[in-house]
Design goal:
By secondary structure, this protein is an alpha+beta fold. It contains 10 helices and 14 strands.
């Protein structure tokens, strides 16, 4: 039994090294000396018989074997945590760390208020949030939950459908007062459109109506960003016409911040999923955070 506990400590130390990117950072977060962390890593490598991490005095790099091994370690430790959680006498008292990968839309003021309320209710609960404009693999990134737009092609993960988010065309009252409002989709080409920058600048919007008709609009504009939150801020600031989720537009119309343009047309329907390592939702603290994410998604749809 003692050997097994020692092995679990080595696994946890190894994952912390992978997540932190250095022995010294891992040592600080674990409250150990760098020598102790290095020794645990060496013992683990000796036990498994392969090099997991290449390290020099200046840098650290996880090997391919180390990357594959870390994914297995996360699943093993996840199952151990689930077993420990099931034995807790007070399941209503949440504790531990939940690591979450969220889209920028899920970390606005209202969402943070909900997360804050959960943290105030459970003093021993901690939340680690990483914001991504594009979804990531929760196994590779060491995350408990990831918000994912579109189909989920990943292997070895579980997923849960959250909501359909529909993106619509909007602008600030200031922009409409200065530049007017488009009456038809084609009129958008005469306006400053806020462009998403991914691997290349956005060149077209494909709009649809309730009858299934489609219109392709050439996107012209002098402001572009790879960050959804920045594009939304630019819209509110009157820099141009952009795209917001239908739920966001409803809230911002009530606040007097936006005007819904071309209400018979919408940009696209985005199916949003929650992606997580198998079995992770059985952990009460992860399930509690997932419930908040579900409610945020429903509010955006």
């Amino acid at each position: 039994m003692a050997g097994m506990l020692e092995s679990l400590a080595e696994l946890k130390t190894f994952l912390r090294i992978v997540d932190e990117g250095s022995l010294s950072s891992a040592a600080r977060s674990l409250g150990l000396s760098v020598n102790a962390v290095s020794r645990r890593l060496a013992l683990l490598e000796e036990r498994v018989g392969v090099r997991l991490v290449n390290r020099t005095t200046r840098r650290l790099a996880v090997t391919d074997d180390g990357r594959r091994f870390s994914e297995r370690c996360r699943r093993i430790l996840s199952e151990v945590e689930e077993t420990e959680e099931a034995l807790q006498p007070s399941p209503d008292k949440l504790s531990g760390l939940v690591r979450v990968g969220l889209h920028p839309l899920f970390v606005d003021h209202g969402a943070l208020l909900r997360f804050g309320a959960l943290l105030r209710e459970h003093a021993n609960l901690a939340l680690h949030v990483v914001v991504f404009n594009a979804p990531v693999d929760p196994l590779k990134e060491g995350l408990d939950l990831v918000v994912w737009g579109g189909d989920v092609p990943l292997q070895g993960v579980a997923s849960k459908f959250l909501a359909v988010m529909q993106w619509v065309v909007a602008a600030s009252p200031d922009y409409v007062a200065r530049c007017g409002a488009p009456a038809r989709p084609e009129d958008l080409e005469k306006h400053e459109l806020l462009r998403a920058l991914r691997t290349h600048p956005e060149r077209a919007w494909i709009l649809s109506d309730a009858q299934g008709r489609r219109k392709t609009v050439r996107v012209t504009g002098r402001f572009e960003s790879d960050d959804t939150a920045t594009l939304a801020a630019a819209l509110y600031a009157g820099l141009g016409i952009g795209l917001l989720t239908r739920g966001e537009v409803r809230r911002q119309i009530a606040a007097g911040r936006v005007i819904h343009l071309l209400p018979r047309w919408h940009f696209l329907d985005d199916r949003i999923h929650l992606v997580f390592p198998p079995g992770r939702l059985r952990v009460p603290r992860v399930r509690a955070v997932a419930a908040i994410i579900q409610s945020i998604a429903e509010g955006l749809s």
